[in-house]
Amino acid sequence: FFFNNNQMAIDFSNGDEDDPEEVIVEQDAEAERAKYQRYAHGGQFWDTPKDFQFPAGVKLRSGWELWMAGMPSHTTKGTATPVRPFRLFDVKLLPPKLRQTFKLTYQRIYELMSEAPALNFRTTDLNPDYIGKTYDVAS
């Protein structure tokens, strides 16, 4: 692998073959996290808007959708307050009331699922079809 200045891993051919191969480019989590806004409340910056609560009664598949895509259409009092994909939460940037819930539920389960050997994980074009396919592989 070759790492460039943007921390992108690029798998190059070894030069022995001229067969075209798919080049997989994945951004690291820090670069992807930088795409999403932080929210200021309580004198600090957080990954979630003020008064955010994790959805109650989430089934495994719905939780996977939140893990992969977040809540892009989330609103607070009529104002758009999109929530990043849960996999991109920085635990230190979750309010204390949310931190423990995240660590004991979402993080524990979905990090394990994300490690499924056959999972081809990408960070762009996360359409419902792709998320469904990754769920099938991860579960």
Please tally the helical runs, counting DSSP H or I stretches of 4 or more residues. 4
Strand order of the largest sheet: 1-2-3
Q: What is the typical, i.e. mean, pLDDT? A: 79
Oligomer: single chain
Number of strands: 7
Sketch the major β-sheet: 3 strands, antiparallel
Structural category is alpha+beta
What report would you give on this structure?
This protein has 139 residues and is α+β, with helices and mostly antiparallel strands. The chain is 32% helix and 13% strand. It contains four helices and seven strands, in the order βββαββαββαα. It has helices at 29-33, 60-69, 96-114, 128-138; strands at 2-3, 8-10, 25-27, 39-41, 44-46, 75-76, 79-80. The strands form three sheets. The protein has a three-stranded antiparallel sheet. A two-stranded antiparallel sheet has the order 4-5. The chain has a two-stranded antiparallel sheet with strand order 6-7. Helix 2 crosses helix 4.
